Structure to design on (386 residues):
């Protein structure tokens, strides 16, 4: 670099930056399926994974679908398609109906058997009193993760 | 005064020496006030209870971790194009500070993730690119050490910085490209309405301000050290002759 004229150095940097951006875009495009952390119920409805293939399924816990117990049963929805899930274990604190969740496991007999359940939250941090007041007025919009 | 006058090491030393004490006090005060305010005088979150308060460390450290790299990028480009040594040394000085902030953000993120998400770590696009950014910090610091000739080291690390910027930008914007991650969106954005409630927002902004001041103060301090090291080396070479 030291032996080059200033104009030449700028040209080199610009060419390098453009190539780098192109490489990044290509890698991002090529791996777009791998980079996605989870599949939505709509995606598995379109292309059903093989039984026993491990993958992650994500969406909202459908209102009224959660049966507690040693084995939790609930339905994951993306408001378009649903998928039933069962999980034997302890769910995180934030896990609740209407909340975003990501489960890891595989499909067995038409049911997603999860070995791990994660809860998603969004960036709308709000004091408890405010959330309660909003709920009372009926204008509270629950986080959709 | 043009900013390029700071490229003169003597001018840089004079100015940075003058503003450094005030800057350090301002940084300490704002971080102190912001953390006490955030930890003890804010209400609990409606979903997360008091766990949300780790926000006041996690967000500023992550903010600095990403922006420190972008500052290094600008300084590296100034070095590559205009060959100002102070600029190259400022980039070198910022790297360890940024690396420490990255570790702090990774750790607070894990501590926050365990009770809330249910996991310490997940290979979410945003988390992964942030981890890669940390590895780039380590590689950047190592490359400076590995090359003997200072100008050549500055050239090579500048190119590495350019490449690493991909991951600095990705860890901020991955949420936009791949919507399906675990990590939530940015806590701060231009349109504040649907974001953090005001009671959390103001101490958070103060905390970020404090961390920015701390970062600037540390980089100035470390750049001064690097300039002095160069001077000492030059003197020793002259002595040896």
């Amino acid at each position: 670099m030291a032996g080059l004229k200033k104009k030449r150095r700028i040209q080199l940097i610009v060419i390098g930056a453009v190539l780098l951006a192109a490489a990044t875009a290509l890698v991002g495009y090529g791996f777009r399926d791998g980079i996605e952390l989870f599949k939505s119920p709509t995606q598995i409805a379109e292309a059903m994974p093989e039984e026993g293939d491990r993958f992650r399924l994500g969406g909202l816990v459908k209102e009224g679908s959660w049966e507690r117990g040693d084995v939790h049963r609930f339905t994951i929805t993306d408001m378009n398609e649903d998928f039933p899930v069962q999980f034997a274990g302890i769910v995180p604190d934030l896990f609740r109906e209407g909340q975003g969740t990501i489960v890891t496991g595989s499909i067995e007999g038409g049911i997603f058997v999860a070995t791990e359940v994660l809860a998603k939250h969004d960036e709308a941090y709000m004091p408890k009193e405010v959330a309660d007041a909003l709920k009372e007025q009926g204008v509270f919009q629950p986080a959709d993760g | 005064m043009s900013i390029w006058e700071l490229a003169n090491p003597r001018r840089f030393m004079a100015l940075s020496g003058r503003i450094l004490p005030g800057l350090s006090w301002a940084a300490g005060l704002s971080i102190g006030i912001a953390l006490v305010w955030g930890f003890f005088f804010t209400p609990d979150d409606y979903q997360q209870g008091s766990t949300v308060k780790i926000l006041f460390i996690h967000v500023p450290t992550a903010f600095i971790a990403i922006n420190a790299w972008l500052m290094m990028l600008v300084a590296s480009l100034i070095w590559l194009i205009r060959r100002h040594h102070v600029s190259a040394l400022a980039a070198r000085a910022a790297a360890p500070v940024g690396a420490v902030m990255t570790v702090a953000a990774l750790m607070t993120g894990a501590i926050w993730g365990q009770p809330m998400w249910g996991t310490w770590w997940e290979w979410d696009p945003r988390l992964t690119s942030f981890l890669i950014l940390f590895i780039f910090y380590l590689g950047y610091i190592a490359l400076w050490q590995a090359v003997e000739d200072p100008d050549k080291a500055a050239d090579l690390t500048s190119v590495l910085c350019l490449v690493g910027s991909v991951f600095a930008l990705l860890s901020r914007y991955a949420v936009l490209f791949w919507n399906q991650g675990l990590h939530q969106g940015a806590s701060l954005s231009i349109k504040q309405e649907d974001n953090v409630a005001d009671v959390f927002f103001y101490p958070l902004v103060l905390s970020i301000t404090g961390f920015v001041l701390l970062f600037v103060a540390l980089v100035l301090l470390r750049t001064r050290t690097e300039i002095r090291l160069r001077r000492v080396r030059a003197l020793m070479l002259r002595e040896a002759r």
About this structure: The first strand of chain A starts at residue 55 and ends at 61. The mean pLDDT of chain A is 83. Residues 6-30 of chain A form the longest helix (25 residues). Chain A has two domains: 1-35, 37-137.
